[in-house]
């Protein structure tokens, strides 16, 4: 029977969103960088292609909105766990409206929708790391304590611990899950510190996979019916050393996905999709 | 009520007891009786003293007037009927209660038990009368009294009321015995039919207790007014037919309407403090993995508790989980849903599944219920528990508190440690292995944290609770949870002997390890029990065969138990404990190490006398394990094993130094099967984790290599994971990996982890090589818990020490001598043996390493001056000024994040927060031979140990003066305690123990620094 916390990494659906032309100029970024819109779109198409064709997920593609330059980074708009979807309240004012389309899409998928009514709360999905057993919420420029509290309220089954994000945009800017109980973490000091905190705060033990580059630590793990462990990670072009580390994961199906352009806008691999498990988990 | 002085001792007991009697609601007659008793006692006391005087070599020389004073104080107190008196009196009883188990635990033969038991009581008296007397005295004294005491129970009967408290205790013991009997197959129907009860009943006042059971029904039973908590608890368990009872407890509402756990070791009457004999039966320790429970009935009760927790929001969970749990409840209670006759919704709505139960949820519950078709109630319970245990708040006991900045937080105590929540968010977590010490002072609650890899100093985190009561309650819960989940056996009583201070509270039941061990031996047929619904709806629910088993069945099961187990565990439960800080023993692993070495030690040390002594003296704890060991180590004679057992016990108490852990952990690889047992015990979580993703783990193994590039710590982990993977999920393996958790900590940061101050360690190490023997010598002398591990690390021989240390502590002089003899080849020791006269007095300061400068000598000579202590009416806390050695940085928690906190801890320069109010009593130096004349320092050594509520620093210097070597031992004992502390008693004890341990030495100086604060209330 459907047990609590069963099937970490099982996904059936993915929500993605198109790239608006405004992305190149108006999208928020921490470093000034020229973004090649076409390249970004090509990249994104390839990304969606992997989800849809290679992995067989049902991909819901939301249309781009020119007034929302950052809208391709759908992850920040919602946190989905089990049957519950928490519609976030993004920390960046300009991104608040991104949640509207997301909410619709999730409603269509019959998720239990939880919304953040509190005007003082901010929460970006990029700050939420779900390990399969618990949540870690990065307290960053985009996410505050109140936002984390609301998340804790929405997912009562799980422990929700806060982790200060001292550097980088989001918590997941330097870490992500690489498998059940496996945290992929960057090797920078702030990243390592954050990991220590997570380890300290948790009743569970996690293995860690440290990659030389913080940005490479953001990867997408799935556990799919006929494919087993799947890991979407950076390409050799971007982070050759980190890829070497990933390649040591012998049991994972490793799929390098290029992210050269979006990364300029602090967009990592996880940022561009919301993954959902619609089927009842297997017994 | 005629108190015939049938024998000296008897009368004395009477008096003692009467003194100990609480004043509440006693009849006037009784009081007068008490007065009488006290008078008599005075006389008797006099006699005894005389006797002592004759027998001994002028004990009175050492016998300070204040002691006498104190005595009389406590005697008269009961008649005064004032609240304060209750404090000391209760202490007396507590002590007695506690003392019994010590003996008990020694796996004495049943017959012997009686006398032995009475012994401690007497001993105590002797102690208090003749504190500071030469050590031989008590022994003789005891023998005398013992013989008297061995007289049959009739005597006790005559002593009546006044004796009650004591009988109570005995009763317990007899219960224990009775239990054992039952197990031996006496065919007794009840554990509780102990002879004493039958005898006593007629004279006892009986009260009706109402216990609300988990299914909401009420259970009433009569208990004697003076019964202790355990008695009632056992009654309830008996009623429930529950064998795995250690997870449960009774609660009552205190006068402030707060829920408190009924202390099994204390009289009920004294705890409830009202005439409201109303209790509820609850789960006290939520087993992290309920599937490991042996019996369905236990799981059923746990389910009942959890259903309630969930329904009333104490265990928060999501909509889906509510529905899922509810559906399992339905299945367990009502069986399959009939497809043709679906249960009407309104039927469901009568049941409470969630705090805000909606129609939608009820529908969902029904829907899910359908899918459980065919599941037996037991299976449904298991499913229920499998899901409930994963909830993040499962088994977390929340306490309201404030951080240092006054921000509201919640402290959650659970199997793994202490969690800090702000609102719903977890903002910090302190795993048990991270916690060195737990204490409370007034309404403050402190935990001392082991320094991290990068940190140099321990830090202390403080929280404010609402009041003293809640601080104490939290502290107790911590002590209990830690003991239950992390220890193999409850803290041994040995050191307690010395520290008569502080809250005496300690977890007294079986630990999870023990209870698992015990329940693995249960082999009764599954008992028939009614589910709540089956009461309402008479309908057989499951296909599971219901065998109706009656008492007979029960008996057989009890037979299944190893009688030793029961005996010991019970005795253990009576262990006395003192102090209100607990020294946190985390790594059980170290136990084995010591154990092993001790085993070896035993080989060349097993003189008969020692064996005997160890039997007599060994603390009771760690019962089940030994028996298990016995099975495994078939070759070794039982007696040896027992000794080991006590040694094992002794080790933990000395633990203190985290260094120990490190060390012992390193040795771990060498572990034997025993180790495994313990580990299985220790960490449950891990097995779960591994279980969760077998596949995953496998995938992790490749992770190994990359991980290796990182901190070595990580390396270890992943490696171990790999091991686990390879070997599949077998429990043993899991346990192996689990142990790695602690191993990890210890192995990789040993330097940092030392709780012994950094300065000391190097010092000791330097000396180690040259002074192995000395270490040996020293160790046994150390009163409380000398850092044993250090020696352990040093060399094999040094390892002897822990074992020895334990023995002398409890032993009479004889024992001590034996020991000394054994060591005689060791020159240093010889000296001290040979020239007892030398020992004393002040070694010139210059010999004292700088950090010890402030050390007081607690090594004692009792003298009149100490009576000043008496004058201090409020024994709230003794706290000798902070150890100069261990600097503690006080970091208070703020609502900020863990990261910031850790940083603070790392960066800040240690600040010693010491209370400045210090009253010093300094005894004149009577025995100052060799005074001041500086000699040649041969060796100097400082050992710091930390335990419970005390920190003991033993500084030993050996000097050569004009051809004579002089050994000087300074002990500095810092006792942190709450208002329960009885200074005088403590001091007396300390002195006595010092004497006992170093019969050949004389006490030159006693300094008591006292730090007293006004407690908000007396608890």
Overview of the structural elements:
- The complex is a heterodimer of chains A (283) and B (1019).
- The longest helix of chain A has 18 residues, at 37-54.
- Chain A has helices at residues 23-26, 37-54, 98-108, 145-154, 189-201, 240-246; strands at residues 13-17, 58-62, 78-81, 84-87, 112-115, 128-130, 134-139, 159-164, 175-179, 182-186, 207-211, 220-224, 228-233, 253-256, 274-276.
- By secondary structure, chain A is an alpha/beta fold.
- In chain A, 57% of the residues are buried.
- In chain A, the strands form five sheets. A three-stranded mixed β-sheet of chain A has the order 2-1-15, with helices on both faces. In chain A, strands 3-4-5 form a three-stranded mixed β-sheet, with helices on one face.
- Chain A has a domain at 2-169 and 187-205 and 267-276: L-arginine/glycine Amidinotransferase, Chain A.
- The model of chain A has no long low-confidence stretch (mean pLDDT 91).
- Chain B is of the alpha+beta class and 1019 residues long.
- The radius of gyration of chain B is 28 Å and the shape is elongated.
- Mean pLDDT of chain B is 55; it is low at 1-201, 493-501, 534-933 and 1012-1019.
- In chain B, strand 7 and strand 8 (417-422) form a beta hairpin.
- In chain B, helix 2 packs antiparallel against helix 4 (65-80), helix 6 (110-129) crosses helix 7 and helix 23 (589-605) packs across helix 26 (638-654).
- Among the domains of chain B are: 204-285, Ubiquitin-like (UB roll) (Roll), CATH 3.10.20.90; 301-394, Acyl-CoA Binding Protein; 396-491, Pleckstrin-homology domain (PH domain)/Phosphotyrosine-binding domain (PTB) (PH-domain like), CATH 2.30.29; 939-978.
């Amino acid at each position: 029977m459907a047990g609590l916390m069963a099937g970490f990494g099982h996904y059936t659906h993915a929500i993605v969103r198109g790239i608006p032309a405004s992305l190149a100029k108006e999208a928020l970024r921490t470093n000034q960088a020229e973004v090649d819109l076409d390249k970004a779109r090509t990249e994104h198409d390839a990304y969606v292609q992997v989800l849809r064709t290679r992995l067989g997920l049902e991909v819901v593609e939301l249309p781009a909105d020119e007034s929302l330059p950052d809208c391709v980074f759908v992850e920040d708009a919602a946190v989905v766990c089990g049957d519950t979807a928490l519609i976030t309240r993004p920390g960046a004012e300009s991104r608040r409206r991104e949640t509207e389309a997301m909410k619709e899409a999730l409603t269509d998928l019959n998720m239990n929708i939880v919304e953040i009514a509190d005007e003082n709360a901010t929460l970006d999905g990029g700050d939420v790391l779900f390990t399969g057993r618990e949540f870690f919420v990065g307290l960053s420029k985009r996410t505050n304590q109140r936002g984390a509290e609301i998340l804790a309220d929405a997912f009562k089954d799980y422990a929700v611990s806060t982790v200060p994000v001292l550097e980088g945009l989001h918590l997941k800017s330097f870490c992500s899950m690489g498998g059940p109980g496996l945290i992929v973490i960057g090797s920078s000091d702030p990243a390592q510190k954050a990991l220590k905190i997570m380890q300290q705060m948790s009743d569970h033990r996690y293995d860690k996979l440290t990659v030389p580059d913080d940005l490479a630590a953001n990867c997408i793990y799935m556990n799919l019916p006929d494919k087993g462990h799947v890991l979407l990670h950076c390409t050799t072009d971007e982070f050759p050393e980190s890829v070497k580390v990933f390649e040591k994961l012998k049991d994972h199906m490793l799929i390098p996905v290029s992210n050269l352009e979006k990364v300029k806008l602090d967009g990592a691999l996880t940022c561009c999709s919301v993954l959902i498990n619609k089927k009842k988990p297997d017994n | 009520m005629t108190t015939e002085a049938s024998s000296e001792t008897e009368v004395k007991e009477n008096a003692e007891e009467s003194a100990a009697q609480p004043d509440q609601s006693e009849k006037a007659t009784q009081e007068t009786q008490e007065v009488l008793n006290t008078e008599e006692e005075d006389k008797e006391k006099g006699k005894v003293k005389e006797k002592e005087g004759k027998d001994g070599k002028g004990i009175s020389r050492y016998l300070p007037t204040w002691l006498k004073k104190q005595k009389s104080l406590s005697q008269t107190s009961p008649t005064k009927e004032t609240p304060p008196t209750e404090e000391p009196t209760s202490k007396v009883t507590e002590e007695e209660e506690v003392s019994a188990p010590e003996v008990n635990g020694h796996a004495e033969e049943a017959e012997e038990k009686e006398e032995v038991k009475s012994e401690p009581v007497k001993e105590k008296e002797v102690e208090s009368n003749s504190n500071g007397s030469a050590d031989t005295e008590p022994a003789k004294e005891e023998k005398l009294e013992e013989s008297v005491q061995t007289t049959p129970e009739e005597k006790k009967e005559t002593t009546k009321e006044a004796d009650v408290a004591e009988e109570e205790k005995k009763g317990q013991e007899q219960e224990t015995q009775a239990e054992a009997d039952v197990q031996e197959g006496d065919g007794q129907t009840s554990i509780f039919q102990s002879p004493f009860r039958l005898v006593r009943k007629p004279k006892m006042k009986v009260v009706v207790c109402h216990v609300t059971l988990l299914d909401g029904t009420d259970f009433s039973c009569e208990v004697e007014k003076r019964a202790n908590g355990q008695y009632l608890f056992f009654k309830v368990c008996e009623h429930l037919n529950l064998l795995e009872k250690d997870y449960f407890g009774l609660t009552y509402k205190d006068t402030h309407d707060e829920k408190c756990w009924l202390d099994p070791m204390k009289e009920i009457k004294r705890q409830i403090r009202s005439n409201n004999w109303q209790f509820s039966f609850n789960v006290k320790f939520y087993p992290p993995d309920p599937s490991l429970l042996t019996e369905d009935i236990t799981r059923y009760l746990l389910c009942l508790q959890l259903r309630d927790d969930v329904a009333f929001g104490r265990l928060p969970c999501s909509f889906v989980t509510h529905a899922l749990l509810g559906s399992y409840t339905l299945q367990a209670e009502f069986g399959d849903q009939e497809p043709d006759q679906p249960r009407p919704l309104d039927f469901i709505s009568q049941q409470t599944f969630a705090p805000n139960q909606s129609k939608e949820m009820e529908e969902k519950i029904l829907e899910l219920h359908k899918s459980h078709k065919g599941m037996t109630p037991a299976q449904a319970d298991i499913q229920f528990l499998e899901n409930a245990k994963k909830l993040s708040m499962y088994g977390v006991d929340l306490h309201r508190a404030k951080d240092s900045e006054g921000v509201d937080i919640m402290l959650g105590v659970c199997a793994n440690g202490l969690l800090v929540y702000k609102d719903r968010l977890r903002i910090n977590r302190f795993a048990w292995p991270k916690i060195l010490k737990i204490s409370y002072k007034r309404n403050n609650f402190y935990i001392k944290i082991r320094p991290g890899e990068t940190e140099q100093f321990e830090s202390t985190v403080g929280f404010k609770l609402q009041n003293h009561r809640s601080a104490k309650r939290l502290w107790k819960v911590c002590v209990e949870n830690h003991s239950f989940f992390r220890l193999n056996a409850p803290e041994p009583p040995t050191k307690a002997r010395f520290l008569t201070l502080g809250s005496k509270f300690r977890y007294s039941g079986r630990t999870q390890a023990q209870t698992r061990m015990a329940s693995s031996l249960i082999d009764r047929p599954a008992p028939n029990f009614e589910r709540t619904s089956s009461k309402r709806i008479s309908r057989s629910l499951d296909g599971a065969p219901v065998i109706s088993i009656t008492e007979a069945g029960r008996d057989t099961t009890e037979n299944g138990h190893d009688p030793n187990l029961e005996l010991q565990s019970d005795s253990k439960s009576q262990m006395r404990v003192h102090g209100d800080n607990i020294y946190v023993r985390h790594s059980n692993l170290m136990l084995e190490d010591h154990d092993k070495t001790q085993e070896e030690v035993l080989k060349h040390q097993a003189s008969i006398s020692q064996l005997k002594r160890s039997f007599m003296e060994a603390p009771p704890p760690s019962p089940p394990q030994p028996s298990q060991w016995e099975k495994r180590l078939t070759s070794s004679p039982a007696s040896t094993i027992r000794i080991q057992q006590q040694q094992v016990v002794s080790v933990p108490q000395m633990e203190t130094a985290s260094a120990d852990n490190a060390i012992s952990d390193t040795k771990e690889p060498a572990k034997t099967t025993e180790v495994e047992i313990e580990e299985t015990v220790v960490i449950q979580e891990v097995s779960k984790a591994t279980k969760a993703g077998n596949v995953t783990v496998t995938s992790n193994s490749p992770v190994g290599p990359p991980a290796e590039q990182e901190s070595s710590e990580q390396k270890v982990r992943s490696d171990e994971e790999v091991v686990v993977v390879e070997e599949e999920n077998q429990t043993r393996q899991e346990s192996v990996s689990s142990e790695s958790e602690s191993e990890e900590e210890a192995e990789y940061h040993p330097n940092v982890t030392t709780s012994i101050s950094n300065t000391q360690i190097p010092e000791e190490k330097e000396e180690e090589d040259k002074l192995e023997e000395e270490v040996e010598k020293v160790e046994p002398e150390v009163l409380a818990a000398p850092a044993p591990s250090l020696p352990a690390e040093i060399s094999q021989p040094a390892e002897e020490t822990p074992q020895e240390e334990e023995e002398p502590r409890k032993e009479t002089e004889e024992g001590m001598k034996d020991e000394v003899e054994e060591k005689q080849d060791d020159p240093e020791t010889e000296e001290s043996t040979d020239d007892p006269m030398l020992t004393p007095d002040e070694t010139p300061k210059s010999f004292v390493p700088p950090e010890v400068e402030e050390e007081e000598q607690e090594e004692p000579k009792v003298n009149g001056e100490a009576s000043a202590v008496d004058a201090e009416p409020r024994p709230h806390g003794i706290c000798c000024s902070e150890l100069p050695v261990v600097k503690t940085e006080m970091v208070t928690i703020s609502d900020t994040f863990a990261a910031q906190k850790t940083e603070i801890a790392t960066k800040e320069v240690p600040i010693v927060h010491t209370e400045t109010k210090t009253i010093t009593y300094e005894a004149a130096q009577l025995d100052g031979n060799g005074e001041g004349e500086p000699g040649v320092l041969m060796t100097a050594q400082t050992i710091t140990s930390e335990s419970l509520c005390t920190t003991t620093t033993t500084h030993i210097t050996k000097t050569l003066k004009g051809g004579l070597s002089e050994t000087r031992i300074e002990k500095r004992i810092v006792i942190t305690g709450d208002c329960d502390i009885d200074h005088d008693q403590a001091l007396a004890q300390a002195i006595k123990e010092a004497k006992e341990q170093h019969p050949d030495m004389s006490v030159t100086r006693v300094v008591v620094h006292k730090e007293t604060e006004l407690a908000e209330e007396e608890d």
